[in-house]
Amino acid sequence: MIKNLVMVWPLVRFDAINSLEYHLVKKILPRYVKVAKNELPAKFQITKRISCIGINDEKTLTEDELWELHMKATKEFYKVVKKIDEKKLKLEDLKIPKFSLLDLKILLTKIIMKSCELCERKCGVNRLENKKGFCKVANECLISSEFIHMGEEFYIIPSHTIFFMGCTLQCQFCQNYTISQWYERGEKILPEDLALMIEMRRNGGARNVNFVGGEPTPSLLWILEALKKCKVNIPTIWNSNFYMSEKTMKILDGVVDMHLSDFKYGKNECALRLSKIPKYFDIVARNHKMASLTTEMTIRHLVLPNHVNCCTKPVLEWIANNLRNKVIVNVMEQFRPEFKAHEYPEINRCVSKKEMEEAIDFAKELKLNFIT
Question: Rounded to an integer, what distance in angstroms lies between the CA atom of residue 129 and that of residue 50?
């Protein structure tokens, strides 16, 4: 099945055949392109080889001391990345230490989950004791499905997409609401099995592994544990609503090769009404700034009906003012009134041709690096 898919995908999405050579992709996502082509190692494979001397799972350090160690190890990580990217060092020259930066990230994630603040809701429940917060993800990894996705951006496909259960938002128009809002039960999977899936899909022709949902943030621990066991070189994509906490953002630094983020709302009031999420713009804008300092990015903006002026234009303008030449922006017209959208008259229809034209014209006016 996988071999057949690899053989026919160029016929399904011919726009993806030479997509890694597309000038905009090479300009904005140069390292992702090289990892996808196996010319450079993925960041998580380097992180596995950064030693954190004098620490193991049993050693007692305060959380502050662990974060201090994480900061120092991250600086070392970027020194090593620079040498590797400049061909002054090979990944094979680096041994996997007894306790690595990736191990430290796993340990810190467990500490965070004891009073969970992986996302900015900061529910504070002890998920290691199987308590559930807003996302309803407890202490097991549950996925809805995993497959080679052909519907993503042209330079991402064929993408090994893993849909994790649960979400930190409650979008009233969610197209994946059966996953995000637990209309499905999900299938339990162990990190070692997840790692084998990733290896199989990469060997079957996947360009990347794409962690999505729902939302991948509540499942961060098991994703990290799977990457620790994963032997293949594959770029990682964090396909997220970007409502993570600052601690989660730090943990993702050095693990993610490309952020594929949502930036839906230009007004907090719209986010609170339609996604039941407080302080949306402030948190998501902050996280985009943080991510842009270290990681290549594609930002998705879904144009909502009757929200061009309050949301689309402010979001695109913010991106132009803050991240203009650092990201590719996908101005999306895929909105359709799913889930509970019928309860909100202003979004109980598809986006009009006029609204999309206005959004695209504004992106052109701002001279953004955008696709549709």
Answer: 30
Compute the radius of gyration of the chain from its Cα atoms. Answer: 20
- Using DSSP's 3-state secondary structure scheme, residue 240 falls into strand
> In DSSP terms, which residues pair with 238 in a beta bridge?
211, 259
* Residues paired with 211 in a beta bridge: 162, 238
Domains and CATH numbers, the chain: 263-372 (3.20.20.70)
Contact status, residue 296 vs residue 324, Cβ threshold 8 Å: no
End-to-end Cα distance, the chain: 30
Count of C-beta atoms within a 10 Å radius of residue 231: 11
- What are the two backbone dihedrals, phi and then psi, of residue 44, each rounded to the nearest 5 degrees? -65, -30
Is residue 267 within 8 Å of 229, Cβ to Cβ?
Answer: no
Rounded alpha-carbon distances, angstroms, from residue 179 to 88, 250, 281: 45, 26, 24
For residue 338, with 0-12 CB atoms within 10 Å meaning exposed, 13-18 middle and 19 or more buried, which class applies? middle
pLDDT in tens, 100-146: 999 999 999 999 999 999 999 999 999 999 999 999 999 999 999 99
Contacts of 145 (CB under 8 A, 6+ apart): 162, 163
| Measured distance CA(222)–CA(142) in Å, rounded | 10
Give me the helix-helix angle, 313-323 and 280-292, nearest 10°.
30
Locate 71 and state its tokens: 């900061």
3-state secondary structure of 309: helix
The structure's pTM equals 0.96
In this predicted model, what pLDDT tens digit does every residue of 63-82 receive, in sequence order? Answer: 999 999 999 999 999 999 99
How far is 205 from 232, CA to CA, in rounded Å? 12
